[in-house]
Automatic annotation (TrEMBL):
One CC-aspect GO term: plasma membrane
One BP term from GO: cell division
Sections of the chain in a coiled coil: none
Residue ranges occupied by any ABC3 transporter permease C-terminal domain in the UniProt entry: 184-304
Membrane topology: Multi-pass membrane protein
Name listed for the protein in its UniProt record: Cell division protein FtsX
Originating organism: Streptomyces pluripotens
Subunit record text: Forms a membrane-associated complex with FtsE.
Domain FtsX extracellular: 56-160
Subcellular location: Cell membrane
Database matches in InterPro entries: ABC3_permease_C, FtsX, FtsX_actino, FtsX_ECD
Role summary: Part of the ABC transporter FtsEX involved in cellular division.
One of the Pfam families matching this protein, by short name: FtsX_ECD
NCBIfam families named among the record's database cross-references: FtsX_actino
Length: 305
């Protein structure tokens, strides 16, 4: 009987404040969709870091005869065969180095033509203008400075470059975008909480006569509060369910179908469905707990029960 009364009061409350209930549902749905999207973006950045940092190389570019005329690092002339052999020996002795590969001037010229063959500069370059280099795969990509400090300024070495630096700029941009999404999510969440509190208070005010009678007949505080808290929880759950739908549909149409980014951007290892599905229970739990707690604290002061 008591459960039936609580359920009937939930229905009455939701219908009585239909406009505000709709606003709560929409704001909860949008804020939690952004919350889930931010979690997925964080997972995506972590996945990309693990994938790309495992592939980055440190490159030691060697001086050629043209560098000797224009680059201060190559003032002693082009690299000699003895210097190349000594650099290779020293690299293989270093514990941070996993693998070393050599790229000749002809190979560098071929790779350049493959990547930038349509540029105006490509037609004026010749193989002897390209630089020989050693490509080093590190056991730990964070140990770039060990290579840089050992070979920068060394005779025959024009420069030491770390591809990780380029990736760091990309990941900084992605993290900035993720923080911006979290900021918007926090704002939407605040709006949702304010709407929930106001909706509960309006609902309690419109039924103040009923709650007054319930106090007089000795109803417990929880029994009086339960319908209002349940109204907020139901509205939040509907919003959370919509947020889950937004995430699933968004993942489906942007990555798998529709935009089909997974087939267009094959170099990016996108997060899988398992990452999406693990976020859905968290979103649903938040969608119930957040409105329930907001309603509980609002009612403690308003109803004074």
């Amino acid at each position: 009987m008591r459960a039936q009364f609580v359920l009937s009061e939930i229905g009455v409350g939701l219908r009585r404040n239909l406009t505000m209930t709709f606003a709560v549902i929409v704001s909860v749905a949008l804020s939690l969709a952004l919350f889930g999207g931010s979690l997925l973006m964080s997972d995506q950045v972590s996945t990309m870091k693990g994938y790309w940092y495992d592939k980055v190389n440190v490159s030691i570019f060697l001086c050629n005869k043209h560098d000797a005329e224009s680059d201060a690092n190559c003032a002693k002339g082009a690299v000699t065969e003895d210097q190349k052999k000594q650099i290779l020996v020293d690299l293989k002795k270093m514990p941070v180095v996993e693998r070393v590969s050599y790229e000749s001037q002809d190979q560098a010229y071929k790779h350049y033509k493959e990547q930038f063959g349509n540029s105006p500069l490509a037609g004026s370059l010749t193989p002897d203008q390209m630089q020989e280099s050693y490509r080093i795969k590190l056991k730990d990509p964070q140990k770039y400075q060990v290579i840089a400090s050992a070979f920068n300024g060394r005779a025959g070495v024009q420069s030491v470059q770390d591809q990780k630096g380029i990736l760091d700029n990309l990941f900084q941009l992605l993290n900035l975008m993720n923080r911006a999404a979290l900021g918007v999510m926090a704002l939407m969440l605040l709006v949702a909480l304010l709407l929930i509190v106001n909706t509960v208070r309006v609902s309690a005010f419109s039924r103040r006569r009923e709650t007054g009678i319930m106090r007089l007949v000795g109803a417990s505080g929880f029994y009086i509060q339960a319908p209002f808290i349940a109204e907020a929880a139901v509205a939040g759950l509907i919003g959370g369910s919509l947020a889950c739908v937004f995430l699933v549909v968004g993942r489906y149409f942007t990555i798998d179908h529709g935009m089909a980014l997974s087939s267009k951007l094959t170099l990016i290892n996108f997060v899988g469905w398992d990452a999406v599905l693990t976020k859905l229970p968290l979103i649903l739990a938040t969608s119930v707990l957040m409105p329930s707690l907001a309603a509980f604290f609002a009612l403690r002061k308003y109803l004074k029960v």
